[in-house]
Design a protein that fits this description.
By secondary structure, the chain is an alpha/beta fold. The chain has ten helices and twelve strands.
Length: about 325
């Protein structure tokens, strides 16, 4: 997949695509339905399959003081989009100046002039342009005059009729329900980051941990999780079972929000490596213990519970 961080002066083979438009935070099953619909149009037409997205997320620009909310920072979002067979990823830089552009100007200048789109595919609730003035109706009204097709995809729903959305995933994670969130995403939700050095307290109690900062990620329910952690080997990823604490570590007076991962039966050095951590199941809320001995005893119970759960699938 080729990534373009601009839309101007594109090579000829990057124009004329069938493009799915949206933020695609989470790349959940609803997003996958939009991109899959675009793929179904691009293939028979012999056109490239493209995704156009916006970075940073517009919510970060309009509401900069909001708590962290991203499900998939750009690196992870791009990987998930590539896995869907997308040929081209157009990343529009979203800032206050771009936000002033009218919906009509976005269609005429970005979609038609810059990308030369053959067809665009959007979710039923897609809005864009200054004041959210553009929607599916405007795209359809302009498409005939400007020579491109438009397809709107109806919402994807779960078995109980719940709309599959990024908001739904955020709610489920905040409630400590990672398995239910995975049903919306089509995969376990994960946090990825570089392993940082810590105080190495885990080693002193027999449970060494790899520490990963949460940065811009959404904060799920704080507590202990059964996890699978992926270690990048260059040509692939090795997945190992483990247990993790996500939170502030009140027993040792911690204040920074951190993900601490203990991998079962692993003795390697992970400092400086990228680690992917999938939250599989919520085991218990984070709490303060009366000293390190009590904490060690509880971690042993948590580890055993995580081993049983992960071994059973």
């Amino acid at each position: 997949m080729r990534i373009f961080r601009h839309t101007g002066c594109l090579p000829a083979d990057a124009r004329g695509a069938v493009a799915a438009l949206g933020n695609f935070d989470g790349v959940h099953l609803g997003h996958q339905a939009v991109i899959g619909t675009a793929a179904g149009i691009a293939g028979p037409a012999g056109a490239p399959l493209a995704v156009l997205t916006f970075e940073p997320h517009p919510r970060r620009v309009f509401r900069p003081d909001d708590p962290p909310f991203r499900l998939t920072p750009f690196r992870i979002k791009a990987r998930q989009i590539e896995a869907l067979g997308v040929d081209l990823l157009f990343v529009v830089h979203f800032d206050p100046d771009f936000a002033k552009r009218t919906a009509e100007a976005f269609v005429e200048e970005v979609l038609v002039r810059d990308l030369g789109v053959r067809h665009v595919v959007v979710g039923y609730d897609f809005v864009f342009g200054r004041g959210r003035g553009g929607n599916v109706g405007l795209l359809s009204a302009m498409s005939g005059r400007l020579g491109f097709g438009v397809t709107s995809v109806e919402p994807a729903t779960g078995p109980e009729g719940t709309v599959l959305s990024s908001t739904r995933v955020r709610t489920l994670l905040a409630e400590g329900r990672p398995r239910d969130a995975a049903l919306v995403l089509g995969r376990p939700w994960e946090i990825e980051g570089r392993v940082e050095g810590g105080f190495q307290r885990g080693r002193t109690i027999g449970f060494p941990t790899a520490n990963v900062a949460l940065d811009d990620y959404l904060r799920p329910a704080f507590g202990v999780y059964a996890v699978r952690a992926g270690i990048d080997r260059g040509v692939g990823t090795d997945w190992l079972p483990g247990v993790a604490n996500l939170g502030r570590r009140p027993t040792v007076g911690g204040t920074a929000e951190l993900l601490e991962v203990h991998l079962f039966d692993f003795g390697g050095d992970l400092y400086g490596r990228h680690l992917r951590v999938q939250l599989v199941e919520f085991l218990r809320p984070e709490r303060k213990f009366d000293g390190l001995d009590a904490l060690k005893a509880q971690i042993a119970l948590d580890a055993e519970a995580a081993r049983r759960l992960l071994s059973s699938g």
